[in-house]
Amino acid sequence: MSYKYTEMWKKLNINLEAHDQLIGILSEGYQTNFLSQSNRPEGMKYFDFVVSEIHGLRIQELVEARKEGKKIIGSFCVYVPEEIILALDAISIGLCSGAELAFEEAEKYVPRNTCALIKSAIGFNLAKVCPYIEVSDLVVGENTCDGKKKAYESIKDLVNDFHLMDLPQTKNSDSMKFFKTEIRRFIAKLEELTGKKLTFEKLQAAIKKVNKKRQAVARLNILRRNPNCPISGLDALLINQIYFNDDIDRFTGKVNELCDELEKKLETKQSGKRILVSGCPMAIPNWKLPAIVEQNGGHIIGEELCTGERGSFHLTAEDADTLEAQIDQIAERYMKIECAVFTPNEDRLERIKEMAKIYKADGVLLYNLQFCQPYQHESISIEKELENLNIPVLNIDTDYSMEDSGQLSTRIEAFIERLS
Fold first, then answer.
1. Global pTM value
2. Three-state DSSP class for 305?
3. Are the beta carbons of 147 and 117 closer than 8 angstroms?
4. Contacts with 328 (C-beta within 8 Å, 6 or more apart), sequence order
5. 61 with 294: CB under 8 angstroms?
6. CA 315 to CA 245: how far, in whole Å?
7. What structural domains and CATH numbers belong to the chain?
8. Sign of CA pseudo-dihedral 159, 116, 287, 215
9. For 345-366, what is each residue's pLDDT tens digit?
10. pLDDT digits (tens, 9 = 90+) for 125-181
């Protein structure tokens, strides 16, 4: 990454030495996992460029946007409504949480047996190497698990401003009423921060814009269902990761351009057994598991993840005729997300079964971060249900370190061989 951004990083209070080390590791991992692939679509060059500038040009754009009066809203979760952020003339970005960084320091704030994603979010903050955190005017935390719920008690004191969004953990009429109240509380916070008032017209435009982004990714996912899937699982995951940080209009256009190319190359078949991955999110640069799968003869053709279909599958209805109705429809859309926080959670099981069928998966890989109890608990019952349906399944518990790569490779290779 160009050192022309050094002064900008200094102004954002970035630890330059630690940041250089992080960028070096990221660049090496990207070269190994992505640029070494053969027959990649031409359209992936844009997403390669985004990664090469992910802490550079994109941060510069956000800094310039702040100078123009826009507010930057950072978050960790797909439950934070991007439509509302856009409608109030702010920018939604995802925050760093995908690498093992400063865990010893993070463990001064959270227990050692906390999942890697939570420790990573705190570690990036403490190490001062995530410019997305530093450029954010507001960080939004959502109570999707007990680990996050308690970690936010520490995170709120480490950032410029913090807003907690509470989530119900059941799906019924009372829960919906509660969640709609939380959405309205979030709106009030953003109106106070931006000095703007939410209007029907701006929210309608934002809903349509975000839906177009989701539809572009859905178009890519439909192409991946083809027997001659023309893109690797690693590249598709990368697009889903960049979904959270790129400019929304540019990203939507580039995904559609890529899909135009892929539609002409459906004869370019990716080799390997078709694997559906389900479970915890994979934030940049968490590429360990997909790389191991595809290096061992698998081809990931779909993800039931927050960095996958779970985060972009559902659209927000566009037929409301009042602002209150729009807000209700946004709440209803986000409550459809099949997160493991909910109990009971039959929706997620049915979604996995449906995806396994329509993607013509040869097997399902359940991906759990160690100490992530919601997904670890659900993986036990989901594994039993899939096996009862004669769908081959492999249940994986791991973290962000590379120490278990050899063991994972052995298990995944054996699983893929079993599918032959």
1. 0.96
2. coil
3. no
4. 180, 320
5. no
6. 19
7. 3-202 (3.40.50.11890)
8. negative
9. 999 999 999 999 999 999 999 9
10. 999 999 999 999 999 999 999 999 999 999 999 999 999 999 999 999 999 999 999
